[in-house]
Design goal:
By secondary structure, the chain is an alpha/beta fold. The chain is about 40% helix and about 10% strand. A hairpin with a 6-residue loop joins strand 3 and strand 4. Bound molecules: zinc ion (ZN) (2 copies).
């Protein structure tokens, strides 16, 4: 069994009430382990331009049929996840064109477009947004593997240098305590600028606060910014986690998110970088 699958088993034990949703996440991890998404990634990825995520500059020609099949499977698993909101997802169209549209909207984190698809289909908007966020993950992980060599070492933005997402959390690694942001979509990593907010880039030390939630039970701290109201979870560890495990560690540390939300902080929604899919 792979490490992400072991982590999923652990989550199922610790959070039995999450099982219906974890079954959906398990499908994503399983799909991400299939080699077919590697074929959908451009063979060559151009070197990184300053400030532009690698995915935003890459011409993509996503194969319709695998996307349609995968969207269909994910929607089926999602609609079985128990709640009436998730059940409503049965009504989302399974056509290739619409699956690709949903996939592309989610790839760019275009929440407005996903909302429109949900409204047209008459399904619960939040349920579709939660599921759609997982749809491109197997492709994004494959893209992240190939993009690793093209990533700029001098990236200074707060968003993912590979796919443009905001960080899922920060890892403070090893004895040198290097700080890396991690992406919960493509599994990517990039240097986190110390003493700077990843969202609004302020370096005003009076605006940057760190706290350890009292009753979270989760290892980790919260770095927050009183200027923009954003926060990021921070974990100290020897090595970075596997790309496919970022999503799971983000889920497993939800107690920290709850504590940050209680304090009035939030994670920004949408992408850190606005872009549209360029057809190859
Ligand atoms: Zn990313
Ligand atoms: Zn900020």
């Amino acid at each position: 069994m792979t490490l992400p699958m072991v982590a999923l088993d652990g989550l199922e034990r610790d959070r039995p009430e999450w099982r219906p949703w974890l079954a959906v996440v398990r499908e994503v991890v399983r799909e991400a382990e299939s080699a077919r998404w590697d074929a959908a990634v451009p063979a060559r990825i151009a070197p990184q331009a300053p400030g532009v995520p690698l995915l935003a500059g890459a011409p993509l020609s996503l194969p319709v049929e695998p996307v349609r099949q995968w969207a269909d499977r994910l929607l089926r698993f999602g609609s079985r996840a128990g709640t009436p909101a998730m059940k409503s997802l049965d009504a989302v169209s399974r056509s290739g064109t619409e699956a690709l549209e949903l996939f592309n909207a989610s790839l760019c984190q275009d929440a407005q477009r996903v909302r429109e698809v949900a409204t047209t289909a008459g399904v619960d908007v939040e349920a579709l947004q939660a599921l759609a966020a997982l749809l491109p993950v197997p492709f994004l992980l494959a893209f992240g593997r190939r993009a690793a060599a093209s990533r700029s070492e001098s990236w200074i933005e707060g968003y993912c240098s590979t796919c443009g997402a905001w960080p899922a959390f920060v890892e403070v690694r090893g004895i040198e305590r290097s700080r890396y942001c991690r992406c919960g979509r493509c599994g990517g990593e990039w240097h986190a600028t110390a003493l700077s907010c990843p969202y609004c880039a302020t370096r005003d030390h009076e605006a940057l606060v760190a706290f350890v939630p009292e009753r979270s039970g989760a290892p980790g701290t919260i770095d927050a910014c009183t200027r923009c109201g954003g926060y990021v979870k921070t974990f100290t560890r020897l090595q970075g986690c596997l790309p496919a495990a970022v999503l799971l560690e983000d889920l497993a540390s939800v107690d920290l998110d709850v504590a940050a939300l209680d304090q009035g902080y939030r994670r920004p929604s949408g992408s850190g970088y606005s872009w549209e899919v360029a057809r190859a």
